């Protein structure tokens, strides 16, 4: 099963300031702020929802096709993804813009000052899925994740026109979207991904009830944080999958991307919805146990052992052949 994942590609620059931002602010001078913070640490991490999801799928041997836009500074990132089983042949390289970047400083009170540079991500709207499909011999599913909003709309409409099944997953872009855009991105989706808060927001902004959403998508996947995931289909019993026990809670950033990576890999294997969700929850747990969205290691032996502990030996035996 050939799955293309469209979504953002970004670099995160994360810094730590040992003091408090509040101590540097002068109440009657807030109209003319000019501040510089001497930071103690700098971590540069690979990120972006499209790249994060593809990294996890690649680790699971699902051969994902990354669809997105980056800058001329993408070479090192590309090499990293290539080494981890990601097809980066459809990444558009901008001639004038840098790869999207998030720059954030966190103080001692965990307050943050951050800036997001869209950069080359804005050119994702220029990517045609037909070109991607022709290059790889066809597409069985396109996951449309958070990206340039125009790109998300274009990819959705092209999937409809070319009868390519698609997954709607607007995540971070949901806050800026109006009801009509959300309805356009949702109608006819093979899969709809969201968390509990986003689910409520979708219903509020579209004016659709939960029943009306289910009438418009085939499979509705809602992540529930530490409680796992719920999968709904019209006229079918609800599937609920719990999360494996965590060894440590290091950093929750990227856990949702990890779940999607595992779930989509399960679909690529031909696994059931329940089994795919279990794989997704296992990968999400690995992400939570690691600082950074692409820093976890998927060791086959320990993965199967923990999978069996969480979901039973029969489930582990079904997954095992895909990990060897």
Describe the protein's architecture and organization.
The structure is a single chain. By secondary structure, the chain is of the alpha/beta class. 35% of the residues lie in helices and 19% in strands. It is built from 11 helices and 14 strands. The strands form 3 sheets. An 8-stranded mixed sheet has the order 4-1-9-10-11-12-13-14. α10 runs antiparallel to α11. The chain is globular and about 60 Å long. The two termini are 18 Å apart.
Could you list some keywords that capture this structure?
324 residues, alpha/beta, eight-stranded mixed beta sheet, four-stranded mixed beta sheet, 14 strands, globular
SSE layout and pairing:
Blueprint: E1 3-6, E2 10-16, E3 41-47, H1 49-59, E4 65-67, E5 69-70, H2 75-83, E6 92-93, E7 100-106, E8 112-117, H3 129-136, E9 141-144, H4 149-161, E10 166-168, H5 179-186, E11 191-195, H6 196-206, H7 210-214, E12 219-223, E13 229-232, E14 239-241, H8 255-269, H9 273-288, H10 300-311, H11 313-319
Parallel strand pairs: 1-4, 1-9, 2-7, 5-6, 9-10, 10-11, 11-12
Antiparallel strand pairs: 2-3, 7-8, 12-13, 13-14
Helix pairs in contact: 1-8, 5-6, 8-9, 10-11
